[in-house]
């Protein structure tokens, strides 16, 4: 029960990696607000006795909506210790084909959404004994593939933002770290499983020669959320099975 007594908000927690992270936090004793635009088929995991969690609707592109989310968490449980700014979208397309709407959607959700979460959470995280902000990048934040301009740019922004905010909050007992998953067989990564042409291109570059699991990303999030990472700050933790791109 490494997160017993802690309160967490996980954006994009209804499915994919966010759900795996929220479930892991609940199993470790945290109270969790699971937030996204729609609840989808999210429910409290059946194997967690006495789990304290609820869904709250949020659009991370809307600063007021995000502010309300953080307020709701604190109103319910009195404190906020951990925020995982995980919500994200991907709109692939080469630059000559990418619509400005898709570019803006990706940048607004993935980059500005993280800014909104951080800004709304800072007063609460700073009041915690061990505030933790965890952002979500991707292998495409630091390696480059055609067709990933909006997504890659948004994730590169998240990594820079993470490091700068870590400096800004270092004196306030709050760490800011980033996860950069690779090819994960969960959420938006699932489509790769059935795409033999693309998968066979990338598989030889992977030391582990397999896709990762959502639980493996969640374990890294648990490390960053817990006491064990107290001296880890401004880090981008790659969870990619050894990608020698
Ligand atoms: N899966 C992978 O292989 C992989 C690899 C590297 C990085 N990542 C990153 O990991 C994060 C999660 O990805 P995933 O694969 O789990 O994706 P996913 O399965 O598509 O889930 C995305 C989540 O974000 C929510 N969301 C999207 N736009 C939102 C908005 N404007 N406001 C609030 N919530 C929003 C979605 O719910 P609603 O649509 O209901 O709002 C959903 O809960 C993303 O940041 C992604 O870039 C994933």
Characteristic key phrases:
single chain, 245 residues, alpha/beta, Rossmann fold, seven-stranded parallel sheet, 7 strands, binds NADP nicotinamide-adenine-dinucleotide phosphate
Could you walk me through the main structural features you see in this protein, from its secondary elements to its overall organization?
This protein is of the alpha/beta class and 245 residues long. The protein has a single domain, classed as Rossmann fold. The chain has helices spanning 16-27, 63-77, 100-127, 149-169, 196-202, 214-225; strands at 7-11, 31-36, 53-57, 82-85, 131-136, 174-181, 236-239. It has a 7-stranded parallel β-sheet with strand order 3-2-1-4-5-6-7, sandwiched between helices. The radius of gyration is 17 Å and the shape is globular. The protein binds NADP nicotinamide-adenine-dinucleotide phosphate. NADP nicotinamide-adenine-dinucleotide phosphate is lined by residues 11-12, 14-18, 36-38, 40, 58-61, 86-89, 109, 136, 138, 181, 184, 186-189.
What is the number of strand segments? 7
- Supply the CATH superfamily name: NAD(P)-binding Rossmann-like Domain
Distance between the termini: 37 Å
Global shape = globular
CATH class: Alpha Beta
Number of helices: 6
Structural class: alpha/beta
Question: How is the secondary structure organized here?
Answer:
Blueprint lengths: L6 E5 L4 H12 L3 E6 L16 E5 L5 H15 L4 E4 L14 H28 L3 E6 L12 H21 L4 E8 L14 H7 L11 H12 L10 E4 L6
Helix pairs in contact: 1-6, 2-3, 3-4
């Amino acid at each position: 029960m490494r997160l017993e007594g802690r309160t967490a908000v996980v954006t994009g927690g209804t499915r994919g990696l966010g759900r795996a992270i929220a479930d892991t936090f609940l199993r470790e004793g945290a109270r969790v607000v699971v937030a996204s635009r729609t609840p989808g088929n999210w429910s409290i995991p059946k194997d967690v006795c006495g789990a304290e969690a609820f869904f709250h609707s949020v659009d991370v592109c809307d600063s007021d909506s995000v502010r309300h989310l953080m307020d709701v968490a604190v109103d319910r449980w009195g404190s906020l210790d951990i925020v995982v700014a995980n919500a994200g979208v991907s709109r692939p397309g080469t630059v000559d084909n990418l619509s400005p709407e898709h570019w803006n959607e990706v940048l607004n959700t993935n980059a500005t959404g993280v800014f909104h979460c951080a800004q709304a959470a800072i007063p609460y995280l700073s009041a915690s004994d061990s505030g933790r902000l965890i952002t979500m990048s991707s292998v495409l934040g630091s390696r480059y593939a055609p067709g990933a301009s909006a997504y890659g740019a948004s994730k590169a922004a998240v990594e820079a933002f993470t490091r700068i905010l870590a400096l800004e909050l270092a004196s306030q007992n709050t760490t800011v770290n980033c996860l950069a998953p690779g090819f994960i067989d969960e959420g938006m990564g699932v489509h790769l499983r059935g795409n033999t042409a693309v998968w066979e291109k990338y598989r030889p570059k992977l030391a582990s020669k397999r896709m990762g699991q959502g639980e493996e990303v969640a374990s890294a999030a648990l490390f960053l959320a817990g006491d064990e990472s107290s001296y880890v700050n401004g880090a981008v933790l790659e969870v990619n099975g050894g990608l020698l791109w």
